Amino acid sequence: MPEKIKSSFGRAFGAARDFTIAQRTLAVLALAILVVAVVGLVSWVSRPSFAPLYSGMSSADASAIVDQLRSQGVPYQLSDGGATVLVPEAQVYEQRLTAAAAGLPADESTGGYSLLDEMGVTSSEFQQDVTYKRALEGELARTIGAMENVSTATVQLAIPEDTVFAAEKGTPTASVFVAPARGKSLAPEQVEAMVHLVSASIDGMSPTDVAVVDQSGAVLSEVGVGTRSSGKQSAEYEERTARAVQAMLDRVVGVGNSTVAVTAEMDVSSSERLEETFTAPENAPALNESTTTEEYSGTGGGGAGVLGPDNIAVPNGGTGDSTYTSQDATRNNAVDKTTETTTRPAGALTRQTVSVALNADAAGAGNTAAITTLVAAAAGIDPERGDVVEVERLAFDTGAADAAAAALAAAEAAAAAEKQGQMLRTGAVVAGILLLLVLGLVAWSRARRRRERREAVDIADLELRPVGDGLDEFGPLHGRDDGDGLLEPVPTRPEIQPPTPRFSSLDQRRAEVDALAGADPDKTAEYLRVLLAEDRAVRR
């Protein structure tokens, strides 16, 4: 090992030996923290960045891909409940090509219009109809499954059979089963999009003919109602009306001085009415008119005689002239025909009641009649429909409000105390870290000063004295200061001839010192330590 490195290590170990117990503890802690930080930094820098290889896969595909990655020794991670596989970013494209060569992920969807390719020329009409319906169901399920937050989807269609013997054709219906992705839920807008997608794909199907159910059994869209059930429609209407009335009363009687309750009754049934009206236009010409006339005239023969008694013919009757006339007229007039179709959707409001309670102590709650008129106008009250509005002035119970205010104040105080405690704990941790840093800096500074004081000095700059005199004046030679004023005794000094106190030249003094060091290096070093200790004591 080079001498410079050995001397550096020697100075470091020498400085460490002079540390107190507290300084040594801080040094060990600082060294441990430094090692942990370096290891963590190296681990973080060397850790590969992962990117998705495939996402939204089925369990079978994910298992097959994981087995392939294990066989190749490629590190991987799973997320999204096992539906997403992540690999190092540098290997994403390579692993995709490898998986594609192995036929992964497998395309499990065999439905859709691909079913029509498997039909033969000998398929019956029934087979063709069923296959076509299955193809539609598969295509719709695949499209819905591609939506956001949808894991899987299944579509079932009920299409009535076309026949010439039915007076009226039935309405097609559809049912959709969806399974949201793990931890996700479907928004009402997404459900409406599914309903309109399915209804627009089938001829004669309306959005109210589609039912949507999720994997938990909740009905998201009812047949005949749509995406919003009657209960939801009533609740939304009641909430909207109550909010409008409450906002008006808050401006009139003040906030907290009124309460509003709205109850609405809605008709969940839907109906369709067809009405035809025929009217005759005035002063309108006939569409077509025809007249047929028949007329006959001539002389007719007399009547023949009849047999009398004895079978003797009676003489013939006389002859005369005759005339025949017949007339037939046909006229087709224009007739106006009016056809009116009225569709009544579900969710029509049939009746509502609004009740308002006013605080008797409120300043603006005196004119009850005026407030009743305002409430009726704001809620859209229709007396002919049977709507009812009731407004009463009552004494409000403020106990619950006061208790809630007190609880809120207590909660705020507790939150403030918790925040203050958290700040104190954080401050204590920060102060402890700063204290450790300060102590470490102090220890490092002291060690540095000691190393600087123990650096090599020029022997010529030291004031040499006779060895005997120096030792008699300062007592026995010392090893190192323990901090309590007592010095460890050193072995008996050797008999060394002290140099001449006075020198004539600098070179002569150096030569004498070299000779002294060559005679007994150890004792010379002890002597130099004593001189350095004296110099340090004088400086302090």
From TrEMBL:
Q: Where in the cell is it found?
A: Bacterial flagellum basal body; Cell membrane
Q: Where are the transmembrane segments?
A: 21-45, 423-444
Supply the alphabetized keyword list. Answer: Bacterial flagellum, Cell membrane, Cell projection, Cilium, Flagellum, Membrane, Transmembrane, Transmembrane helix
One of the GO BP terms on file: bacterial-type flagellum-dependent cell motility
Instruction: Look up keyword Transmembrane helix and say if it applies.
Output: yes
Q: Is the Lyase keyword given for this protein?
A: no
InterPro entries annotated for this entry? AMP-bd_C_sf, Flag_M-ring_C, FlgMring_FliF, FliF_N_dom, YscJ/FliF
Domain spans labelled Flagellar M-ring N-terminal: 46-221
Q: Name where it mostly resides.
A: other
The record's Gene Ontology cellular component field reads: bacterial-type flagellum basal body, MS ring; plasma membrane
- What region holds the Flagellar M-ring C-terminal domain? 249-396
Instruction: State the similarity comment.
Output: Belongs to the FliF family.
Alphabetized NCBIfam families for the sequence: fliF (TIGR00206)
Reported function? The M ring may be actively involved in energy transduction.
Can you say what this protein is called?
Answer: Flagellar M-ring protein
Which species expresses this protein natively? Oerskovia turbata
